[in-house]
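lol ok so funny story. i was supposed to be doing the assay writeup but got distracted and ended up predicting the structure for this chain instead. priorities right. anyway since i did it might as well share w the group, maybe its usefull for someone
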Amino acid sequence: MRITELAGDNQPDDTSKTFVFYDEGHTLGNALRFVITKYPEVNFCGYTVPHPAEQKMHFRIQTNGLRAVDILQRGLEDLEKLCEHTLKVFDEAVSDYKNQSSMEETEVSS
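and the output, tada:
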């Protein structure tokens, strides 16, 4: 994943930044926005996909004191943990289902 800061977005205190995510879109944007807007230090968080033909997303964060880049890093890490947990729960449910189906087949054939 390649991320840069939007050119010309020079804020003196680094609490407001717009980041450009290349080769990303609504899937990451909406999930990351959901995670970051839950933080009490965040005043605003949103994203746009400037044009459907361009493979990039603009992601804006405004905080009440922390650096926006630190909030972005925290949000990406928290989203990764959420995805890992979701995959773990899903894999366990699939395994449980297969075990249950296998036991039912054994009971029916007996």
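The chain has a mean pLDDT of 91. The first helix runs from residue 26 to 37.
back to the writeup now i swear
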